[in-house]
């Protein structure tokens, strides 16, 4: 397994991480993701550790806390071998204090996560969403206190816009609070919006990308194809409306390119889609999920090799879309591009 520095920090993370969204399996969304119990979770953690995957990502909102509980049981007795990443901020209930990034909410959420995970510290504590109702200064001060208390070691965010992340970083610098080192983002061959603003921000500010849903909400498994019904077991039957939107014809165009490269390389479609991400700038780790051992082992085949420049170019061309304003002049007009060249072709983070 290749290890990379997470953003501008000294924390080394594996190129592939494991997402525990399938653990617990409570509710309509997470029940469709997977229903992995503690026994199955231990087996998946065993396989991950054998392969060098040491980072496990979860969130309090995943199955109402059950994901954290199952992950905590699965890593019991080997806490020192793993990096635990969790998130908070999305609603955990209907009460006024059950969501957001206020001081009260963050302290309570951290204590609850520590209890469910069965640990006394969290390696990476991330805000799951931006809370427009709480002053950023209050949020950062509370997170600073959690770091100083030894309950949290590193901080990150997820699903922030560029201005939200940049304003937070500027305020952290102004007051001497710990800076965010990671941005957990949606990025895939059928979802490249990350490249327009958040990737340049990550390069400039040292934010490492932790990629969620790298297979486009299950669309890049190789099983979703033109003129064919969805596979019977696909989670898209139940969760398509929750995930990132995608135009069907654009999806099939990308799948056609993946099929072409699969023929050339002998690799599976999802392995190619994951490998493409691993060669992109700012990507510190790609979070893979698995309902079972077979899926996990297939995803592990995404590392240990690299697509050629020509194959990367083929996938870039098949998956590319016209940039939105204000980015399209830099894509289409030479004068703009000279002032602000594209960053999506820069090399990925240097291995630690």
UniProtKB/TrEMBL annotation:
Mind listing the UniProt keywords for this protein, alphabetically?
A: Oxidoreductase
Protein's UniProt keywords contain Transmembrane helix: no
SUPFAM superfamilies linked to this entry = NAD(P)-linked oxidoreductase (SSF51430)
Tell me the Pfam families matching this sequence. Aldo_ket_red
Question: Which GO molecular function entries does the Swiss-Prot or TrEMBL record give?
Answer: oxidoreductase activity
Cite the NADP-dependent oxidoreductase domain residue spans from the record.
Answer: 16-318
Q: Does the keyword Oxidoreductase apply?
A: yes
A GO cellular component annotation in the UniProt record: cytosol
| Name of the protein in its database record | Aldo/keto reductase
Give the lineage.
Answer: Bacteria, Bacillati, Actinomycetota, Actinomycetes, Kitasatosporales
């Amino acid at each position: 397994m290749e290890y990379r520095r997470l953003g501008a920090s000294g924390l080394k993370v594996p190129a592939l991480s494991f997402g525990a969204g399938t653990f617990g399996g409570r509710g309509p969304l997470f029940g469709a993701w997977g229903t992995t119990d503690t026994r199955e979770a231990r087996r998946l953690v065993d396989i991950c550790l054998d392969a060098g995957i040491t980072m496990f990502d979860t969130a309090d909102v995943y199955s109402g806390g059950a994901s954290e509980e199952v992950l905590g049981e699965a890593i019991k007795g080997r806490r020192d071998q793993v990096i635990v990443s969790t998130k908070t901020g999305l609603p955990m209930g209907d009460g006024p204090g059950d969501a957001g990034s206020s001081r009260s909410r963050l302290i309570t959420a951290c204590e609850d996560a520590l209890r469910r995970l069965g640990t006394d510290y969290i390696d990476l504590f991330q805000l799951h969403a931006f809370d427009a109702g709480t002053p950023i200064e209050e949020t950062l001060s509370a997170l600073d206190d959690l770091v100083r208390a030894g309950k949290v070691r590193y901080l990150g965010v997820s699903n922030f816009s560029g201005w939200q992340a940049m304003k937070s970083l500027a305020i952290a610098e102004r007051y001497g609070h710990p800076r965010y080192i990671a941005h957990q983002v949606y990025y895939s061959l059928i979802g490249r919006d990350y490249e327009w603003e958040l990737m340049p921000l990550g390069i400039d500010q040292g934010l490492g990308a932790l990629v969620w849903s790298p297979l486009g909400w299950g669309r890049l498994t190789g099983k979703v194809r033109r003129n064919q019904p969805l596979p019977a077991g696909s989670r898209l039957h139940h969760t398509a409306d929750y995930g990132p939107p995608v135009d069907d014809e654009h999806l099939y165009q990308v799948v056609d390119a993946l099929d072409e490269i699969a023929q050339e390389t002998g690799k599976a479609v999802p392995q190619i889609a994951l490998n493409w991400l691993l060669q992109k700038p700012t990507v510190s780790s790609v979070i893979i999920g698995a309902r079972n051992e077979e899926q996990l082992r297939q995803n592990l085949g995404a590392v240990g090799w690299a697509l050629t420049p020509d194959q990367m170019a083929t996938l870039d061309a098949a998956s590319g879309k016209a940039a939105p304003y204000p980015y399209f002049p830099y894509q289409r007009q030479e004068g703009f591009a000279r002032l602000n060249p594209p960053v999506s072709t820069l090399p990925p983070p240097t291995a630690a």
